[in-house]
Amino acid sequence: MNLWTAVRSALRALATNWLRSMLTMLGIIIGVAAVITMIAVGGGAQKRVEEQIKSLGSNIMLVLPGAVTAGGLRLGAQTGQSLTEEDAKAIGSEVPEVQAAAASLRTGAQVVAANANWSTSIFGTTPEYLEVRDWPIAEGRSFEAAEMAGSAKVAVIGQTVATQLFGDADPIDQVVRVRKVPLRIIGVLGRKGQNSMGQDQDDVIVVPLSTYRYRVQGMSAGRVKRVQAVSVKVREGQSMAEATENIRLLLRQRHRTQTGADDDFSIRNLTEMLQAQEESSRVMAMLLAAVAGVSLVVGGIGIMNIMLVSVTERTREIGLRMAVGARSRDILGQFLIEAVTLSLVGGAIGIVLGLMATWAIGHFAGWQVLMSADSILLAVGFSAAVGVFFGFYPARRAASLLPIQALRYE
Predict the structure, then answer these.
(1) pTM of the predicted model, to two decimals?
(2) Mean pLDDT of the chain
């Protein structure tokens, strides 16, 4: 019996009991659809984390003030005012692993431009901040040294602010008012998107640190210039742990911290936090795919069960075929083809359902999904392997029957 004859015979046998065949394929259909959907959801989660890492920038650390103790009570992180602009400059120049460091101050305010207004974040920092965050200027330019030194009334805005205040108009050289301070827009930042907390990073106005301090906030020109945070970018290929330790030693020396005393600041490795989140997403995607794969195994057990029933029902047919010249390998091939056909047809239906489910999750639930040809090939290959694995024993049992005993079977 050639292959095509065996395929036709197998399809005819399955079509004879089509309802039973469909119920048998149900486990494979659900398993393949679940594998494709879960891999797409897990891949989308990983892609989202990768985008967040990319938008954050590479090798980023954040130095924050420590806690304040008042009346024996620790008031929590970032309640102190231990960091200064000079600390940021020292980190950038004295720590060899550091590529750039930028001090910053931040607040929220209502911004007015002509007849439009928008509530956004006002960020006072230095040009090094854009280098730390790998944040390019899409239009215009960044701050110049003279503007930083002279507290110039200039600003660089994010994409969201540009859209809300000016729509499709060109915002360059337009004027916005922040707390009655007119600021001329000299640049527009490239799009960053949302961060890991779901906050819109493009909803920001960046001004020179001195402009923020003396014009927007109206601070006095004191000798010690406190800041809320210092963003640090470590050079490519340098150890983040070594950079963290060197920054810690430098700041303890600058702040004259006594031996054994707690640091009056904290250092957070933002890249490692997101990479840990990425690893968690990858593990979760693998677990989801493994759970979905269990249903494929259950479907395979169903195929084995129904094929054993089929062997029993068709014992006399097997005996007749062998009596007229069919070889054991012909009987083995016929039943094996039936099992693989059940798996492949079920896999094809499962692919269609999986694609539909993935589209529905992305469209209606708003989740980010990532469909790949690899996941489809994996599901199809696994379903075919299930058919061969679970169909071999019933096929082998049918092929091992003796013709005379099969013909006498009642």
Answers:
(1) 0.60
(2) 82
